[in-house]
Input
Amino acid sequence: MIRCFLAAAFVLTPAAAFAEESGLPTGLWQVRIFTPVPTPELKNDEQVFRICYDKTAVKSHMNPVLPKAQAAKCKLDFTDMGDLAYDASCKDGDHRLRISEAADGLWRGTYRFVGKKGDVTLEPAVELKKIAETCD
Output
């Protein structure tokens, strides 16, 4: 009985699970980072900026939140299992972006930074919204 269930589960696994890694699509993206500020009012520090995620970035699986100049000097790792995981091991510390698609062209998750000096750890919420197909 259990063997039949396991065999059926394997057969019913979507083909996308076996597809080649893809990652975040190319285009112009708006990035929002929400960092909690320890105040009595429970405020968030919000940073908003735009990035061009081009074919070169997609091919190298570059962390889209990490500046390109810094990412070029880091050891990059990437995993796509429905949710995307971008890791970058850099001189200043480890950068870990974990995002899931919340809607078409909208990804949400966390950005964890663990610094190599001073015992610094940050884990703000992140939102990436595709605002154009091209960066022009």
